[in-house]
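Model: Ready when you are.
Researcher: Fold this.
Model:
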Amino acid sequence: MRTPKVSLIGAGPGDPDLLTLKAVRALAEADVVLVDDLVNREILSHAPQARVVEVGKRGGCKSTPQHFINHMMIALAQRGKHVARLKGGDPFLFGRGGEEMLALRAAGIEVDIIPGITSGTAVPASIGIPVTHREYTHGVTFVTGHTRNDMSPNWRALVDSGTTLVIYMGLKHLPEIVSSLLDAGLAKDTPAAVIQQGTLPQQQQVVTHVANLPLAVKQYGIVSPALIVVGEVAGLAHLNQLAVHQRIAA
């Protein structure tokens, strides 16, 4: 029997061409692939011999319990299967990859971590937004708008940091997030963007001032999955997106 092994693989932001070569090789060797809901199904073509198990997880929706996923990975690996756990973006950035790694290690399972391109940088880049730029900001902060216990981030500390804010899983609570940012002292005319289905052909986005963001999202029918970007760098979006900005801001 082979040594028990699980590969925690980042599938990237959506575009299958952004998958890493190491991920492609691991998928080709896999006996079983446990795949998340947001993973582009074209990526599964790299695992033609593997059994595919859907363990969809999407913020705010009914999903496979994490303890069940952990148990399944351990059980399959202990039977000698090479398991690929395929997760959107990067498994260690709001992907619960750390939880899964610890569960596997506790069971004595070898874990291979294969990072993926995170949507936090790739999706803004798809419309020309660099999340860092030395003339606009000294850093970037990744934060989730959806937490297990519904606790809110310290928005005042985030505003005071002066960094670009990239907010995952925040669309459902966008009005509350914007209100909290403004209450914390963020200028109403700070550029901001919401990008839906980033890097995919069906991608849509709005770019406007942060105070206008909830109205703009409603006006243009933006839905999840979507990423929120707040900061001066959002004003660097492509010119065609700035046209959207001007229409909304007017």
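Researcher: Now this one.
Model:
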Amino acid sequence: MPETALVIAAHPDDGDFGCAGYVCQLVAKGWTVDFLVCTNGAKGTEDRTMTRGRLISLRREEQREACRRLGVREVHFLDHEDGELVYDRALLEQVVRCIREVRPHTVLTHDPTDIIIRDSFINHPDHRATGAAALDAVYPTARDHLNFPEHLAEGLEPHKVREVLLWNTNHPNVDIDITAQVDAKIHALSAHATQFGNQEDFAAFSRERWRSDDGRYLEHFRRIELGF
């Protein structure tokens, strides 16, 4: 029976980079997929004429368009300030609320466990805060009715996520072949025009980034299966 997946990302475009190929596969299987974006995207432009308010609006619409291209059902925005995300009880409540609303079998999110990724990438503090909140929301918080009992009054029951997939990880244990979906992934990412000005250069860079030695295109995840 088709299931539901929830992608929990720090910024607009993070989820597309992390798992858009696999999202395409899930949608093709009949799964329902939602995105939760924790920050407002108010940073990340070299355009000195861009105003903060306009950038927020553009990046929100870019994420919606990218998700339309992927077949995602809905994008949820928390609108925390980009670059200043703090993992606290308030953020945890928001993530738990979304999990209890969407009721996903699978959550896909950032791996928060390392600051340096593959000796070539610094894991953004917003990524780490998002991943930590997502993992704590999955287990144990969203499962226990005594956590945020006000949700019960709103009809939001506890929920057990069964699988977590972490992207940008130093400890991948599963590779997903997205060769058939790589063009769709690039098409989704190209919706983020404020981030990737030269689309041809961006497409070439992306293909090289995801291409394995045998010529296939892969997304790498650290998979956690929750059997209880």
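Researcher: Key takeaway?
Model: The first strand starts at residue 4 and ends at 9.
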